[in-house]
Amino acid sequence: MSEPAPAVTPKSISMDELVALCRRRGFIFQSSEIYGGINGFWDYGPLGTALKRNLKAAWWNDMVERDLPGPDGQSVDIVGLDCTIIMNPKVWQASGHVGGFADPMVDCRQSKQRYRADHLVVLGRAAADARLYAFTSGDEEGLAKATKALCKYERIEALDAAAHTTRPFTALSAEERARCLGPHANEVGSLTEPRQFNLMFETFVGALRDEDARAYLRPETAQGIFANFWNVVDTSRVKVPFGIAQVGKAFRNEVTPRNFTFRSREFEQMEIEFFIEPSTAPEWYAFWRDRRFAWWQSIGLSSANLQLREHEKDELAHYAKEGAGTSDIEYRFPFTAPGYGELEGVAHRADFDLKAHANACGKGEKMRYFDQARNERYFPHVVEPSAGADRGTLALLCEAFTPDPARPSGVFMKFHPRMAPIKAAVYPLVAKDGLPEIADSLFKDLRRTWVVECDEKQSIGKRYARMDEAGTPYCFTVDSESLTNQTVTVRHRDSLQQERIALDAVRGWLAERLG
Ligand code: GAP
User: Fold this and answer.
1) What pTM, to 2 d.p., does this model score?
2) Phi and psi of 409, rounded to 5°?
3) Which residues contact 139 (CB under 8 A, 6 or more apart)?
4) Which of 38, 345, 360, 411 could bridge 94 with an S-S bond, Cβ 3.0-4.6 Å?
């Protein structure tokens, strides 16, 4: 029997290998792959769909359906919503997305590439005649290319650490931009000054394509919740404090989609807008920050790869400036390691959104919520835990990816059993002598409760290898002994240990481990 595989840190994982496994096993494909793909869009194959659905179902179950006490000792009350992707464009004017949901962009006139201004860094001397070399922050290859080009231009062997420094591109003057070489250019001065670029996808509703017909694909699910706040209060028995949860697609025309699904142009969010009496914001903010941080660990992300990062004052979004705070829950992805990338944001948005919609629809103060217990009217404050289902799925994939040269597959996916796309496999050792019939009957029984697979083709080693890459925690094998003593072997994915258990005990054995 092999030793258990050594623990790996995301840093030691090759993203190329993970992406290849995702393609090979049907977790994630490029969208429209047969036509060469489309940048920033991804499709989930059978295993990926099951994994992402398990993540979203766990979120919904644990956040909306499960009973849990809040900081006030009362049960946390959350109801669901499923609203449209295209809404009245006034929603996006009121929320500030039409005017402000923009990134400063830099275009390269020569290579026709577009870069986020705050991602560009320049290397070079501060002298008035020095040539500057731009590259994308964090791009090791880009830095190496810029260094080589600069050394060649200045006819030096190596950089002088005191003289050759890096600076943000946004800090350059027009005269310095004229001396700057873009990352994909071969002539200086091709980079434009930073210009605002709105990230919302536009479309037209109805037959005419004029200004009145312009609409947007939602860039977040949150605004649908705010716009429906009054409907929910009027039609259900909720009272502040309570939350509205929504899971759904969001669209952003990201300028530089990258790192697999991490920054996509179409993605799914899992958002809660939790409405509270304003003076209770600090307790509820701390509650949601800590609860969400613990939740990611409960579904299998290791605490060693997660961190909570409180935003600095100057980092806070416009709606969170005066609030109790904003925190990012961050995961150490292989492409950010040793640093971290955002998985979820938890923000105290104050009453910015409800007030903005109340004012924009013309009813203003009349839209204040009436708190019966306090006998007062106010706009509730909001604490928003906003998570990405695709980033969550990617973090689960990174966490699970465990190289193990001792196995035929060379790797296995160590998913938390709750997240595993397939919970168990049932295999006859050989496809004869009555073994397939026993396997089939066990399979049909287990399938009533869990996602289980049964297969009699290929060698048992190849079938195990396939389940290792799918991340299936348990494989039950029916062999000749099963005919005589009514037992099967169970193979544990992580330890590779095998044990025999009675056929009629399999259901109870699995229930104990999977729930
Ligand atoms: N309503 C608040 C809001 O949308 P956000 O930080 O812009 O906040 C929340 O997005 C979460 O949505 C992020 O933490 C991330 O997980 C996910 N997300 C945002 N942009 C994304 C993108 N381009 N691709 C994949 N996920 C994204």
Assistant:
1) 0.87
2) -75, -20
3) 183
4) 360
